[in-house]
Specification:
49% helix; single chain; Spore Coat Polysaccharide Biosynthesis Protein SpsA, Chain A; 8-stranded mixed beta sheet
Length: 389
Amino acid sequence: MWLILHTIFWISFGLVVYVYAGFPVCLLLLTWRKRTIPPPIPSDNALPSISFVVAAYNEELVIEEKLRNCLRLEYPKEKLTFIFVSESTDGTNDILLRYRSPQIKVRIMPERGGKVASLTAAFPMCEGDVLVFSDANTYYWPDSLKMLARHFVDPQIGVVTGDVRLLPAKHKFGQGEGLYYKYERRLQELESAFWSTVAIDGGMYAIRREYFKPVSSRLIVLDDFVFTMNVARKGYRIIYDAEAVAEEDPTPGDAQEFWHKVRVVATAIQSVLDGEGVPPPRQIRLWWLYVSHKLLRWFVPFYLIFMFLASGVAAFNSQWWAGMLAAQAAFYVLALSAWRAPNLAALPFRVPYYFCMVNLAALGGILRGFRRQERGVWTPTERHVPPRT
């Protein structure tokens, strides 16, 4: 019995360490002598044409600033078209129709079908060589489209994603989220240098139109993840460019961010069950990246539970295991303290808090995903009026 408990603990512990530390270290070793130098920006004549797509649902607080941001982008006007697809019931549609022009196309959906349905409906309107997908509350830096587009001179690259930076957040969840984003960006850089990143930001990614494939069904899926992984499954690379920058307001509250993460994991699990965006094992590099960065991480809450239970039982027979149990309990007490006392903003509190909240959300998402409780429509988080001119 004790051998079984020890085995369960160490396997679970090893998986947690591998997901958060071992995998990045492997990437560092594999890319030690590789230097990724972005290609130069082509002349305006050599840049690809772009169809810039935004799916909107009740975005009246931010949609006008998004439109203005689009018009400020530094890209040849004759090669750039904006396509807004709206399922809104507030004032979003009126604002969009006010801005409609030959460069800004607007499609109002007759009913709410979800983000995937909106993006699929936008595809017949896209004539650009490259499709750029963005969220309504993601504001691009003026040169960001050129940064994304320059990579498509390489025929092996099918998707490019950029650096969507969260503006400072005051709520405790957001403080840890900023650290997590920095960690994720570094992973994307290493994966791109190795072969292909499997993590893209839905607020900023570009894809060759010829490789874009609408999902095979209207089942709920992660649109950005599945669309881009379908390209990677064809043998093309997904690249992260740190110089393609956008800004996004953080989620205004912990509860909203928590439920957002629950939904992300739930839709990811449903997508896996449907076989959407899952690379075959014969694509060894891509499969390893997918399993290490995505699949194993989604199940971290189960590893944590197994560790706690195994060490809890083993503690009855060993002081050493009692110490291991106490160390885990102390970590969770720090997280609980940060939850109960919002003013505890120091790293020893906010890192455990964010780690535990993310994994609690993942646990809820896994349960919802296997029960297929997510619907095909989405509710965006609360928007704030962007502080821009």
